[in-house]
Model the fold of this input.
Amino acid sequence: MVWEAFDERFHIPVANSYGLSETIVIGSGTTTFPEYPHLTKGYTSAGVAVGYTEIKIVDPADPGREMTFPESGDVALRGSAIAKGYWNMPEATAAVFLPDGWFLTGDIGNLDEDGILCITDRKKDMIIMSGWKIYPTEVENVIILHPAVADVAVFGIPDEVKGEVPAEAVVTWPGAVLTGSQLEGYCRDHLAGYKIPRKLFLVDSLPRVHGWKLLRKDLREKFGGSCR
Done:
């Protein structure tokens, strides 16, 4: 990943921080501290809470139920820098700004015994297949290691029986040949069966904002319509 490669090449300490516009960026969020390298968890974490921030992981379907490590769930933040709500949007405000001050970020992650936060995905991108929860980033991190794959996005498409199933849009390296059966066999060696994408779409490029933020919604609409 970029963070690790930068550190190894330039030997310049990097603080990886997490926050949202609703939390004044890192006013209520987390960060890693270069003087404490263990906080990075091998370049995978967003660090520990800063300032007067409180963090907990809650069940995406029931914010009143707190989850414990290694369970993943909705990352909730509380602190003095949290916004009061969205301007003139009472319904949107009520959905994520809870009465007791907790703000539901919409990010999926886990919080270990040392209070170190790892972000794993976006809740809106989570795929639910026959009750199984599939996090696209986890599957993408496996597929991208296939030698023929240059870029990949995993997303849900509708299924009459299972509700939705995972699909994959793949950009191959120039000259590489890749079939669905080849990639399925590769995934079976590295993923649980229910996480394996059911459909492969070969594309020239993936939709991204500013070249990095993946727009899975665009892929759902193009290849499968709305999944929710």
